[in-house]
Inverse folding.
């Protein structure tokens, strides 16, 4: 079966993602920031919505669920740990689960930090990680509920996936994130090149999402906290990666 992933802008800077099986006109949705724009796309393209996959409980990722369930009768998948804070779930999942939905297999990652019940969905068959607000393009989610240690451990789980993996993260924060990463690594030529690419995309209102994990590994300073050149840039020689990551996250909070 042939699958494509469509990035749908929602609200002011959110994204939802439709995983579409083209022959059978079936779709799965990752996160539902709103219903209107998603329903417009589904109806315009004659698609049936079978599942909604939720990464975490924040309103800007779940506000559209109720309308979509009423309209399409789709099933909702989310973290068992966050059951009480999510819309009614038809399927509860947890880290290290493997589930099959519409002939695709998804591996579930527990990725606390942004929230304590945050999960990510990885599908090797389509080379995609749906990371919500954990790993983001040139960044990571703000720590609203979790700790720096939790987020760093979460990112380490994702960093070892196939570098060709496409990262579908939940917001269009990339340009701001890139400017910040350059303050951490002012000599990183890969960051400078990526900033130019991002500017070109945003000048035509083109999403910067998905990004490639291979690009994140050389430009996303949050993923590079264990590298000597990053430690030196922050005058944190000899400090461990968690201490460096904590400092980077602190600086971004005040950027």
């Amino acid at each position: 079966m042939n699958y494509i992933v469509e990035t749908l802008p929602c609200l002011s800077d959110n994204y939802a993602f439709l995983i579409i099986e083209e022959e059978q006109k079936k779709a799965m949705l990752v996160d539902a920031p709103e219903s209107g724009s998603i329903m417009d796309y589904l109806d315009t393209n004659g698609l049936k919505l079978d599942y909604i996959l939720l990464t975490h409980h924040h309103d800007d990722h779940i506000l559209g669920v109720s309308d979509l369930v009423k309209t399409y009768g789709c099933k909702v998948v989310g973290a068992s740990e966050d059951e009480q804070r999510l819309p009614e779930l038809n399927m509860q999942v947890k880290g290290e689960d493997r589930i099959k939905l519409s002939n695709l297999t998804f591996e579930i990652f527990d990725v606390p930090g942004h929230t304590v019940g945050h999960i990510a969905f990885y599908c090797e068959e389509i080379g995609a990680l749906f990371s919500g607000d954990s790993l983001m393009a040139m960044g990571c989610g703000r720590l609203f509920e979790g700790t720096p240690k939790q987020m760093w451990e979460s990112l380490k789980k994702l960093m070892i996936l196939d570098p060709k993996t496409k990262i579908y993260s939940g917001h269009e924060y990339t340009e701001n994130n890139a400017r910040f990463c350059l303050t951490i690594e002012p000599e990183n030529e890969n960051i400078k090149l990526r900033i130019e690419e991002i500017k070109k995309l945003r000048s035509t209102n083109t999403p910067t999402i998905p990004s490639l994990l291979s690009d994140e590994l050389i430009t996303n300073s949050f993923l590079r906290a264990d590298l000597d050149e990053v430690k030196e840039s922050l005058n944190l020689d000899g400090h461990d990666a968690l201490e460096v990551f904590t400092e980077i996250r602190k600086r971004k909070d005040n950027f």
Notes: The longest strand covers residues 3-10.
